[in-house]
Amino acid sequence: MNHEICTRCIFDKTIPNISFDSEGVCSYCAQIDELADRFPNDERGAVQLQEIVNRIKESGKGKKYDAIIGVSGGCDSSYLMHLMKVKYGLRLLAVHFDNTWNSTIATENIHALTEALDIDLFTYVVDATEFDDLILSFLKSGVRDIETPTDIGLATTMNIAAEKYSVKYKIDGHSFRTEGSAPMGWIYMDAKYIQSVHKEFGTVAMKTFPNLWLYKQLKWMLFGRIESIRPLYFLQYDKEAAKEMLTKEYGWKWYGGHHLENRTASFFHSYFFPVRWQSDFRIAGYSAYCREGDMSREEAIELMKEPPHIEEGLLEYYKKRLNLSDEQFDRLMTLPKKHYSDFKTYKKTFERMRPFFLLMAKWNLIPWSFYIKYTIPDPLANKK
C-alpha cells in the first residue's frame, strides 16, 4: 500500500528519505521511538537523570563549575538553566556563541536568567564582517544549509569553554519529544563543508570563526572526555508551562516562535526555507506534538496551512545588514539549487567511522542524533 502521509504524525512523502511501514507509520516516527526507548521520561528517566547529575557533581569537585550549558535566550535553554541550577543544584557556566545577529529579546533573556540565577556567562563573539561574509558565501553557493556556521560555531564554543575550565559535561536544551527530528537531507553541517563553501564564495578571511575540525572534535572526545548531556530527554517537558514560569519568575519574553530568537535563524525558518526550498521546519515540531498526543493530526495539518510568522522588518534588516539590493537578494533566492554533496565534506569519513561513533554515542561523547543522521549513507547525496 502506498502512503501519502504518516498515520501518526504529519510527515508526508515529500519528506526526504522517508518510508512507511505496513500500518502507514513513517520511518521518522520509528526513529523517535528508538530514542524514546533509550531515553525514558518516566520514573526510570528521573532516576537516570539524577544519576547523571550525581556524576556531574562528583566530577566538578575542586573546580569552579560542574558543567557548562549552552544558552540562546530561547525557551528550552532558559528553562534548563533554571532547572539544573534550582532543582539539581549544579554550578553552571552559561555559554553563548554570538554570531552578532541576536535579537534584543534574546540578549535580554540571557542576561535576565544568568543574573537572577547568579550564573557566570562565557560569550564567544565572532567578527561581524567575517560572519556576514560566511552567510553570503552560503547564500551564493545555492545550498539550503545557511544556518550551518551558527550551529557549528556554538558546538565549537561549547568545547572551547569546557576545555578552558576543565569541565567534563556540556548540557544543551534539545528535546526530540518537543522538537521532533529534522528530516535527513534537510540540513547538514561540518567544518570541511564550511571551508569548501567559503573557499569558493567567500571574500573575507576566516580568522575568528570557531570551526569544528574533525581533529579537534576527536581531541575533545578522546582526550577531553567531554560528555554531551540532554536532560530534557529524561523529563516530561511542558513547554507552555515553562514559558509561563520563565515569564513570571524572570521577566523572560517570548520571541514569536521556535528558533526565532536569532535573526539569521529567524530568516532561515520563516522565509528562506519555506520560500526558497518550499519546506517548512514547523512540520517537525507539529509532528512531535502529534506523537506525544498534545495535538491532533487534523489540527497540525490546519496549522501548516498558515504561513510562517515573519518578524516585522526582518527582510529589510537582512538585506541592509548584508548590503544587498532588492535585485541582488531576489537573484540569490533564485539561484540553481545545490546539495551539500556538491562540496567537500566529512560525510564519507563519518560513514566510515560509524562503528567508532556508535561507541562515542553510547559513552555520551556525541549526541545520538549525530550518530543516527550523519553516519549512514544519504541516498540523495549518492545520486550526485
Number of helices: 19
Spatial shape = globular
Poorly predicted runs of 5 or more residues: none
The total tally of domains equals 1
CATH architecture call: 3-Layer(aba) Sandwich
CATH class: Alpha Beta
* Main beta sheet: 5 strands, parallel
Strand order of the largest sheet: 3-2-1-4-5
Number of strands: 5
Supply the helix-strand structural class: mainly alpha
For the record, what is the CATH homologous superfamily label?
HUPs
Please report the distance between the alpha carbons of the first and last residues: 29 Å
Q: What's the rounded overall pLDDT mean? A: 94
Binned strand content: 5-15%
Task: Give helix % range.
Answer: 40-55%
Output the radius of gyration.
20 Å
SSE arrangement, N to C:
HHEHEHEHHEHHHEHHHHHHHHHH
| CATH topology (level 3) name | Rossmann fold
Architecture overview:
The chain has 384 residues and is mostly helical. It has one domain (40-382): Rossmann fold (3-Layer(aba) Sandwich). Helices cover 51% and strands 6% of the residues. The protein has helices spanning 27-38, 43-59, 75-87, 104-116, 128-141, 148-164, 176-179, 191-201, 214-222, 239-250, 263-277, 282-292, 297-304, 314-321, 326-332, 347-352, 354-362, 368-374, 379-382; strands at 67-70, 92-98, 120-125, 169-171, 227-229. The protein has a 5-stranded parallel beta sheet with strand order 3-2-1-4-5. Helix 5 crosses helix 8 (191-201). It is globular.
